[in-house]
Amino acid sequence: MKTEELIAKGLSLPLMEAFYTIQGEGRFTGHPAYFIRLGGCDVGCVWCDVKESWEAGKWPILPIEEIVAEAVKYPGRLVVITGGEPLMYDLGPLTSLLKEKGFTTNIETSGAHPFSGDFDWVCFSPKKFKKPHPSIYKVANELKVVVFHNSDFAFAEEHALKVNENCELRLQPEWSKSEKFTPLIINYSKYHPNWKISLQTHKFMDIP
Ligand SMILES: C[S@@+](CC[C@H](N)C(=O)[O-])C[C@H]1O[C@@H](n2cnc3c(N)ncnc32)[C@H](O)[C@@H]1O
Ligand SMILES: Nc1nc2[nH]cc(C(=O)O)c2c(=O)[nH]1
Ligand code: SF4
Ligand SMILES: [Mg+2]
């Protein structure tokens, strides 16, 4: 099979990096996890903290067996698929292989592409820069909105109306604007208590 065909079937994927660390954000903050960061993103967030991931062609294309063979070397059995935008790819084969090896599977996604894969936890972080695909709303376990501008509170509420009723709601300050927005988020959460706060704790700990 040609490389493009292997990628289209989700059997080989562009891997930017993979690392064993502590989940810094959201519901699983503080949990040891193996991160698989796939290359490629077409969303274009102005404040993205991994812009070097955007160009898929820069990264080696690896068979999913090789990606998983590396993951099993570490003691943790929580895996986080991120990117880039991981839903640019069919994540069915990768997640089924991870499940076979006993992993709990989490994803970090903007939801801008059709949902795929077998995930135990879906963290959906919608962006103004590219509209989410409708398939994400029923599967999202967590809505994590990055706050970079005052209008992001209204953007967050718009999405809260569309996700399923069990979806957990979180606001996360954009890193460079966190001095301005963290106090506003704290106040917002106190008076809209269905919203929780998520911080990028790995950046405070200075770990990947
Ligand atoms: C780098 S993204 C990769 C996954 C996917 N493309 C997405 O945006 O959800 C991982 C998480 O980091 C968040 N993020 C990216 N840049 C950020 C920044 N400068 N400050 C705060 N959160 C950021 C995203 O919203 C997302 O929740
Ligand atoms: N420690 C750590 N936690 C994270 N949670 C989401 C991340 C991501 O970039 O998707 C991330 C990351 O890059 N590092
Ligand atoms: S969707 Fe995610 S990876 Fe893509 S630009 Fe936005 S934050 Fe970065
Ligand atoms: Mg990150």
Automatic annotation (TrEMBL):
GO molecular function, one term: 4 iron, 4 sulfur cluster binding
Keyword list, A-Z: 4Fe-4S, Iron, Iron-sulfur, Lyase, Magnesium, Metal-binding, Queuosine biosynthesis, S-adenosyl-L-methionine
Binding site for substrate: I22, Q23, G24, R37, T82, P208
Residue numbers binding [4Fe-4S] cluster: C41, C45, C48
Domain of life: Bacteria
Binding site for S-adenosyl-L-methionine: W47, C48, D49, G84, S125, P126, K127
Cofactor(s) annotated in UniProt: S-adenosyl-L-methionine; [4Fe-4S] cluster; Mg(2+)
InterPro entries cross-referenced by the UniProt entry: 7-CO-7-deazaguanine_synth-like, Aldolase_TIM, rSAM, rSAM_sf
EC number(s) on file: 4.3.99.3
Pathway participation: Purine metabolism; 7-cyano-7-deazaguanine biosynthesis
Name of the top EC class for this enzyme: lyase
PROSITE patterns referenced in this protein's UniProt entry, alphabetically: RADICAL_SAM
A Pfam family it matches: Radical_SAM
Cofactor comment text: Binds 1 S-adenosyl-L-methionine per subunit. Binds 1 [4Fe-4S] cluster. The cluster is coordinated with 3 cysteines and an exchangeable S-adenosyl-L-methionine.
Gene3D superfamilies: Aldolase class I
Keyword rRNA-binding (UniProt): no
Reaction(s) catalysed by this chain's protein: 6-carboxy-5,6,7,8-tetrahydropterin + H(+) = 7-carboxy-7-carbaguanine + NH4(+)
CDD domains per record: Radical_SAM
Entry-linked SUPFAM superfamilies: Radical SAM enzymes (SSF102114)
Subunit relationships: Homodimer.
Family note: Belongs to the radical SAM superfamily. 7-carboxy-7-deazaguanine synthase family.
PANTHER family found in the cross-reference section: 7-CARBOXY-7-DEAZAGUANINE SYNTHASE
Function statement: Catalyzes the complex heterocyclic radical-mediated conversion of 6-carboxy-5,6,7,8-tetrahydropterin (CPH4) to 7-carboxy-7-deazaguanine (CDG), a step common to the biosynthetic pathways of all 7-deazapurine-containing compounds.
Record protein name field: 7-carboxy-7-deazaguanine synthase
This protein's encoding gene: queE
